[in-house]
Each structure stands twice: as structure tokens, then as C-alpha cells.
Amino acid sequence: MLKKISIKFVTVVFTLCCYAQERVRTYYGKRFENQILEEHLSDRIDIFDARDNSIQIKGEIISSCSKKGCWINIDIGENKLFVKFKDYGFFVPTAGLEGKSAIVNGKLSVDTLSVETLRHYAEDEGKSQKEILAITEPQITLSLLADGVIIE
Hints:
alpha+beta
């Protein structure tokens, strides 16, 4: 009898521990149903198919706007993805995001960022004046205009 109670107790404690270790997800912007099946999908993204449809991409946050939380850069495998938030309708935290996982939902595009824009983003990121002035050429970038973000 005591053995059965002990086994049940251990089972309950183990189950509770497993549930407690689930990732904490924080939603920003529009809530969406997560349909991501695996990480780093960049090698399979067809920009021409994706540009008119909302897609979801998961990756690791490598930098963010430290002033307002109005953009993030995420590593999606072979590429970096620059993510802005639709109509400045929401923002993410301004610190502590690097290394966290993000799932972004929105419209994909390829953009050419001007030197002025790149310098602005470098300033937002908190880069030094020397690093900002070293930016002298426009950059073609894979971008996503997100209507929702999940940060884990």
C-alpha cells in the first residue's frame, strides 16, 4: 500500500515538473496560431511565393532596437531576417532579447536599405559613432513586416 502511494506521489511530482519546464511564450502584436514545425527555414523560403502571403519563421534573436523595441534581427540559418512591426502597432522589450527564440508572423520582402536607414538602425542598436560612420553602402536585406511575434 505504501509502495503504491509512493509511486503515485513520484509520478505526480514528475508530471508537475515536466509541465513547469514548458517554455514561457510572450506574444506581441496580433496573436496567431503557431504553425512552425522546425527552425531555420530560410533555405526553403521562396520569396516570390511568400511575398503576398503571411508566413511564420522561427529563429534566434541576434539584435534589437534598444531605444524603442521597434525592430529585431533574427538568425534563420543561412540568412539574417530584419523584422519590423506593422504600423508601429506594437513593440518588444528594449533589452535582454539576444539569444532568445522568436517566431514572427508577417509578410516577407527583399529590401534595399539606404546608408541613412542603416545608420539609424545602428544608432538604435547602440553601436558606437565609429561603427555608425563605417556604414557607407546600402544593403540588400531579407525583411519581414510582422503583425505578431512570439518570444520564448
